[in-house]
Known about the structure:
With 602 residues, this protein is an alpha/beta fold.
Amino acid sequence: xxxxxxxxxxxxxxxxxxxxxxxxxxxxxxxxxxxxxxxxxxxxxxxxxxxxxxxxxxxxxxxxxxxxxxxxxxxxxxxxxxxxxxxxxxxxxxxxxxxxxxxxxxxxxxxxxxxxxxxxxxxxxxxxxxxxxxxxxxxxxxxxxxxxxxxxxxxxxxxxxxxxxxxxxxxxxxxxxxxxxxxxxxxxxxxxxxxxxxxxxxxxxxxxxxxxxxxxxxxxxxxxxxxxxxxxxxxxxxxxxxxxxxxxxxxxxxxxxxxxxxxxxxxxxxxxxxxxxxxxxxxxxxxxxxxxxxxxxxxxxxxxxxxxxxxxxxxxxxxxxxxxxxxxxxxxxxxxxxxxxxxxxxxxxxxxxxxxxxxxxxxxxxxxxxxxxxxxxxxxxxxxxxxxxxxxxxxxxxxxxxxxxxxxxxxxxxxxxxxxxxxxxxxxxxxxxxxxxxxxxxxxxxxxxxxxxxxxxxxxxxxxxxxxxxxxxxxxxxxxxxxxxxxxxxxxxxxxxxxxxxxxxxxxxxxxxxxxxxxxxxxxxxxxxxxxxxxxxxxxxxxxxxxxxxxxxxxxxxxxxxxxxxxxxxxxxxxxxxxxxxxxxxxxxxxxxxxxxxxxxx
Length: 602
Ligand SMILES: Nc1ncnc2c1ncn2[C@@H]1O[C@H](COP(=O)(O)OP(=O)(O)O)[C@@H](O)[C@H]1O
Ligand SMILES: [Mg+2]
């Protein structure tokens, strides 16, 4: 079974939005056409009024019938009005169809991209904030597009059309408007750049206050215990004042922008009217043309009023997209090669050759590690905490790439196999298994999606999970809370065991998989485990002597190096590290670290 590769996504906000627009080009173009139509109809209304007035005046002057004379212009007026209705609703319809689909696509692709990130990436980024980023990026991308389509573009159309219509009457009039538009747009843009800085400061102050409140509520117990309720309130007061300062600064600035806009509007309308009256009085212009110039100015002023605010919003949306893209659309760390082959496991032999690995450059975990495990062998990894046992399992699963050396399974380098095929052949039971907030049935079936209900239940029985599952409220349909918090550690381990039984992969990895079980349950499970291990290559990290004694071979790790390797009996006879740990055992467990070991002896 092959898996779909990660989608290719642009990593700059503008190209990111354009990338998704390209999937919906017909819809976006339709919106563009409808918005153009609507703006044209709107801005041509004054033009129709001009013709109506001139027709009426002409008819009156010629003492002819008014209605027939005015009819064509009136039809034009009615047509334009109807055009506004139809074009705007057509555009609205496309938006209803397009908007949700666009956001869905962005979310889906961002999620698919995210899925291919490495273990390291997910350890460094919180799940909640990643989910938020996906939501905000899809929303922001849509808003960037809408602002361009429904705010900026209609304004461009309106300005251009007005200039053309006015130029037909008088070039000077068009020149005045053109100069005004250029000045107005540039100044609005510059002002909004400045306002953006203030708006960001204000947003930062708001989230600072929220953070302080969260911290205070989290520590409400401390405030109660130390009778510091008033203190906490006063403490918050200072941050609230700070927020007020920041808020006033951005609001004052917006107010200043409005002064600019209202004054500019006043200048435009006064200038246009004065200029037009002059033309009119000199007989260069008709009454209708005068009315058109005046109402065009009014219409434009109306449309252009919120321009700074729109620039500001636009920057914010673009900023959201930029943040999300920066966080999610990074290069993937662990990639399938172009010629990656599905891994074929026949015996399950594992060879680790000259392996160098470090999570961080400064502290190597392994240097030149070699280990050969024949197919079907059951090997125990033993060593103090931090000696690299879990890391080796991580590398085997290719959750990280080694810096040097290679791991082979049945002679095939896992680095040149597809990650999916590798992980399909390996069942892993981690020390602290996570469960989905889905039913227990679904959680167990996750091991093999086509397992029947009976197979799931049989696996649960084998893992000694069946009994406690039946005791839960909804049995196999019970939900287990986020990450499985409603179950105890031991119960989660048993669900994870059942899941591994269902998966039935040829290679089995257990990372202290029974550590959270009480010794009675553990003893029951040993038999099931022995059954599960049959015919498989098994790597077990364990501290329990009862687990270790049953294995073919024990490998002892110390600071990332293998210091002993042999059958349990051999190692005991050798009287080395393992034998010492054995001697220091407490309650059937090997010591977890040197301090504990010494303590046991003392
Ligand atoms: N995700 C990680 N990032 C950085 N260092 C890690 C990470 N996981 C483990 N380590 C370090 O790698 C070393 C080996 O850890 P690990 O393999 O978990 O040990 P063990 O399973 O034997 O207790 C330890 O020094 C540990 O601190
Ligand atoms: Mg470990």
